[in-house]
Design goal:
- The complex is a heterodimer.
- Chain A is of the alpha+beta class.
- Chain A contains twelve helices and 14 strands.
- In chain A, strands 4-5-10-6-7 form a five-stranded antiparallel sheet.
- In chain A, helix 11 packs across helix 12.
- Chain B is of the alpha+beta class.
- Chain B has two domains: 76 residues, Ubiquitin-like (UB roll) (Roll); 68 residues, [2Fe-2S]-binding domain (DNA polymerase, domain 1, Orthogonal Bundle), CATH 1.10.150.
- In chain B, strands 3-2-6-4-5 form a five-stranded mixed sheet, with helices on both faces.
- Classes of the chains: A alpha+beta, B alpha+beta.
- At the A-B interface, strand 1, helix 1, helix 2 and helix 6 of A face strand 1, strand 5 and helix 3 of B.
- Strand 1 of chain A pairs antiparallel with strand 1 of chain B, so a sheet runs across the interface.
- The complex binds flavin-adenine dinucleotide (FAD) and FE2/S2 (inorganic) cluster (2 copies).
């Protein structure tokens, strides 16, 4: 049961949503799948007076692949991503993350936009978007802006979205050599470590790597030193691969909790990053 | 010119029409009422259970337009016009749904509290055409927790009902 009463609206256009957001200011909240927001409302961690359901606005769902670029609407459900043959082919890293997220019921309601806008430090997609070097499209009353995934995430439950903006979608270049590998918390299913890797190969050696990590710090990050060290490495050379992936969480304020202390988590971060690199080479 | 913001409802009780197990239910509820509470407290259908009320246990699983969801994490007002199926809607009169019969046959429960959610989830698993080996059944039933630990028999029941289906 949700302890605080609220008004519910289901606008049929972005302009209607912006008008409602302007009218209610900080007392309004956007509602997507509700799978982060409704639990927070039950715990009084969010107490909106106006809930604006995005489900009635056309054009916010679906996966499009055109000229080597993949675009995904913010209201696309995890289950849709997890079942997409196109994604499996063009961005296995996102396909695998969608399949590893939550459980079947959660995947049938939660959305990619809600997950990214929420800014949870354990958001699986956050690492994936960094590795894909994705662009986020954000709409506001004054127009639309584009932002790089890398600057969008700023802290724990903190993004650069203003309360009056709507995340409408994400896009990225197709990345067939990519993978997501997750060490899930045994009870919650959220990542203790989630590693997303996108590779460019030159024969059997890596020419360029992008590595995104989630679950480890306050928010997802790119493992820059590992990316540099991976250049030129043949993943089949285990010693070279593990050497390049060492220290993947260096410089990060690593989270500590009963299921995984900071030292253990840092060690697992190296292990899961190297596994993700290996997995990405099969693409 | 102010923009027309479309229909809005609440915070007071408002009319919400739900179609549950093929029957129309005209309820008067606040927007904050979850689908789970609407079923149990307003539509007189207490078969759907409340375990955690936080989306983690699956006791509240129902089908909405044939897809399994946690009814505790969604508002009733979001589902006007949808086809909702609960455990009360599975049997055909006295004839049990094959999944219900399989749970009985294989002892897929102890206390029975998680069972309505397990059965609805299993019905969806078959509709989703998931592989029927034990590992896959366990993975695709992972949204349903059984506090009694009847997992072994639940997996057997799902596999048996699945094989019967094809
Ligand atoms: C049992 C359970 C297990 C889970 N496991 C995982 C997991 O393993 N990994 C993982 O990453 N996540 C997990 N989640 C979270 C899940 O992915 C949520 O679906 C997601 O975080 C929120 O998406 P939503 O569509 O439900 O958003 P909502 O809950 O509706 O919204 C979340 C927040 O984002 C805002 N918002 C939503 N959409 C937009 C938009 N388009 N523009 C601007 N703001 C917006 C809302 O106002 C709200 O503040 C789990 C959730 C549950 C309940
Ligand atoms: S009561 Fe809904 S998932 Fe536990
Ligand atoms: S039978 Fe008791 S919780 Fe599953």
């Amino acid at each position: 049961m949700i302890p605080t009463k609220f008004e519910y609206a289901k606008p049929s256009s972005l302009d209607e949503a912006f008008a409602l957001l302007a009218e209610h200011g900080p007392d309004a909240k956007l509602l997507a799948g509700g799978h982060s927001l409704i639990p927070m409302m039950k715990l009084r961690l969010a107490e909106p007076e106006m809930l604006i359901d995005l489900a009635g606005i056309p054009g916010l769902t679906g996966i499009t692949v055109r000229d080597g670029r993949v675009s995904i609407g913010a209201m696309t459900k995890h289950a849709t991503l997890a079942a997409s043959e196109e994604l499996r082919q063009h961005a296995p890293v996102l396909f695998e993350a969608a399949n590893a997220l939550g459980d079947p019921q959660v995947r049938n309601r939660g959305t990619i936009g809600g997950a990214l806008a929420n800014g949870d430090p354990g958001c699986d997609y956050a690492a994936v978007m960094l590795a894909l070097d994705a662009t986020f499209t954000v709409a506001g009353k004054g127009g639309t802006r584009e932002e790089a995934a890398s600057s969008f995430m700023v802290g724990m439950f903190e993004t650069t979205l203003s309360p009056e903006e709507v995340l409408v979608g994400v896009s990225f270049a197709a990345a067939p050599a990519s993978a997501y590998v997750k060490y899930a918390h045994p009870a919650s299913g959220y990542p203790l470590v989630g590693a997303a890797v996108v590779l460019s190969m030159n024969g059997d050696a890596i020419s360029e790597a992008r590595v995104g990590v989630t679950g480890v710090g306050d928010h997802a990050f790119r493992a820059g030193s590992v990316e540099k060290a991976l250049a030129g490495v043949r993943p089949s050379d285990r010693t070279a691969l593990e050497g390049a992936c060492a220290g993947s969480a260096a410089g990060v304020d690593v989270r500590s909790e009963p299921a995984a202390g900071a030292g253990y988590r840092s060690a697992m971060c190296d292990v899961y990053v190297s596994r993700a690199v290996l997995a990405a080479t099969r693409g | 010119m102010p923009v027309d913001v479309g229909p809005r409802a609440g915070p007071h009780p408002v009319p919400v029409t739900l179609t549950i197990n093929g029957m129309r239910h005209d309820l008067t509820i606040e927007p904050r009422v979850t689908l789970l509470d609407a079923l149990r407290e307003y539509a007189n259908l207490p078969g759907t259970k409340k375990g955690c009320d936080q989306g983690t246990c699956g006791a509240c699983t129902v089908l909405v337009n044939g897809r399994r969801i946690d009814s505790c994490l969604t508002l009733a007002i979001m589902h006007t016009g949808a086809r909702i199926t609960t455990i009360e809607g599975l049997a055909d009169g006295d004839r049990l749904h094959p999944m219900q019969a399989a749970f009985l046959e294989h002892d897929g429960f102890q206390c029975g509290y998680c069972t309505p959610g397990q059965i609805l989830s299993a019905v969806a698993l078959l509709a989703e055409k998931r592989p029927l080996d034990d590992a896959s059944i366990r993975e695709f039933m992972s949204g349903n927790i059984c506090r009694c630990g009847a997992y072994k028999n639940i997996v057997d029941a799902v596999a048996a009902a699945g094989k019967q289906n094809v």
